């Protein structure tokens, strides 16, 4: 089973969503992450993924693969009528409000540009609203747009405390596909996210690596046997 097929099996609460039947080029959104980590909210459970958690106070990727177009939306805590921390998240996070709005993150959108193609992007989405949007691109082509109403089970009412409107979401590329740009945008106050997580599309899956190691071990053993017979 390929890593893309494995990534298609993502926990959605107590349900499992199987996406392998989707046509090529499909991009899917599911929900499902870890149980909330004290003070940091929910996190991804996808193996081999890299994280940007904003705890440095900047929109900077410590791994060096993603660039953020705006950095003025890093906040902590909640501000009435402006932004609300994702439930259970006391750390720094990213907020986005309409362009020109005189509040933190008033840029309308933030573009995440990846230096290498990825096949997975996830984040903790706080107080989900109908006017929050996620655009997924590949080489300049818009593949899919998701809004708060597309999150399975979400009420998209902007609740600060509901476990339905504060969830970790996973965006998955279809089999053999990838994407290289994400645009997070909002037409209202606000779009709050944390624990941005992604996986490079060219990273070997763990099972493949184990297979290679096993093949190497067998090859070494075979070579040793041949040498023994020659002595």
Description:
With 231 residues, this protein is mainly beta. 13% of the residues lie in helices and 35% in strands. The chain has two helices and 13 strands, in the order αβββββββββββββα. The strands form two sheets. Strands 3, 4, 5, 6, 7, 8, 9, 10, 11, 12 and 13 form an eleven-stranded antiparallel sheet that branches. A two-stranded antiparallel sheet has the order 1-2. Strand 1 (10-12) and strand 2 (15-17) form a beta hairpin. The longest helix is centred in the last third of the chain and has 25 residues, at 206-230. It starts with a helix and ends with a helix. The model is unreliable at 1-24 and 208-231 (pLDDT under 50).
The gross shape turns out to be globular
Integer-rounded radius of gyration: 20 Å
Q: Major sheet: size, sense and barrel closure?
A: 11 strands, antiparallel
Oligomer: single chain
Q: Roughly what fraction of the amino acids lie in strands?
A: 35-45%
Show unreliable segments. 1-24, 208-231
Please estimate the helix content: 10-25%
What is the CA-CA span between the terminal residues? 42 Å
- SS field, number of helical segments: 2
What would you call the structural class? mainly beta
The succession of helices and strands, N to C, reads HEEEEEEEEEEEEEH
Mean pLDDT: 84
Number of strands: 13
Topology (SSEs and partners):
Elements: H1 3-7, E1 10-12, E2 15-17, E3 27-31, E4 50-52, E5 66-68, E6 74-76, E7 92-96, E8 109-126, E9 132-138, E10 141-147, E11 167-173, E12 179-186, E13 191-200, H2 206-230
Antiparallel strand pairs: 1-2, 3-11, 4-13, 5-8, 6-7, 7-13, 8-11, 8-12, 8-13, 9-10, 9-12
